[in-house]
Write a structure and sequence with these properties.
Elements lengths: L2 H14 L7 H8 L4 E4 L2 E4 H9 L7 H16 L30 E7 L1 H6 L2 E3 L5 E3 L2 E6 L1 H11 L1 E2 L2 E2 L10 E5 L6 H17 L3 E4 L5 H11 L3 E5 L1 H6 L1 E6 L4 E5 H11 L1
Parallel strand pairs: 9-10, 9-11
Antiparallel strand pairs: 1-2, 3-6, 4-5, 7-8, 11-12, 12-13
Helix pairs in contact: 3-4
Length: 265
Amino acid sequence: MDKERKKQLRGILFQHLDGITLCSTIATFFNKGITAFILENKTFSIQEILSKYECNAGYMNVSLRLLASQGWLKREIIQDGEDIKSLEGKKSPDGKGEIQIKKGIEVGHIFQLGKVYSEVMKANVLNEKGKSVDLFMGCYGIGISRLVAAAIEQNYDKKGINWNEYIAPFEVNIIAVDYEKDPLIAKASNELYKDLSDMGYEVLLDDRKDSYGIKIKDSELIGIPVNIIIGKSYKDKEEVELKYRDGRNSINHIDEIKTIFNHFK
């Protein structure tokens, strides 16, 4: 560690390693392989810092816990060449249980801010003894884009996304076969589109010049829950196919389609 890094890191530790917060700079140093930190003119390893502060700071910043845990695992548990999955069943760092490897999806964060900002802003209240104390602050956030990714991660197959109907971008896709060539199919598709939209459904009308195969593959890829196919059977018998993303399908008269969807809405 060069002198400039020591000076910068020492300043960070003096200011923030009181159980309140941890600057992201420490994570940067750790990622560069620096695992010893300077505090009070002494050198401490990550686990020593954790031990020093954990007892008198129950709200120790999550980042510090994470770094300490990583450093401890790398030096004490994982042997050279081993994968982290090899930890399954071994004793936990605190010795009170066994390590379990689980798959998780991060969809939000919590930040334990402590008094860092309240002290600066002089945001204080009176406690039960009538004494003015700084607020202990925290915040949280849910990542909307992360929720989308999490939903897809848990609901897909080899064809593509399998959306839940409540978060699907469209609830119904009308696949009009030969829309541009057949006025009868175009008319029926447009009318059904309007009827379902008036019922409150979010409807997509696929009136592209592409073949049925391309249209159904695209619909399965983006995960629309229900497809209504209007093609040759409609011209012959006024029948359409209901094809669900989960594999179910049925043949119905086009008038029954409106009744079915009106019932479920």
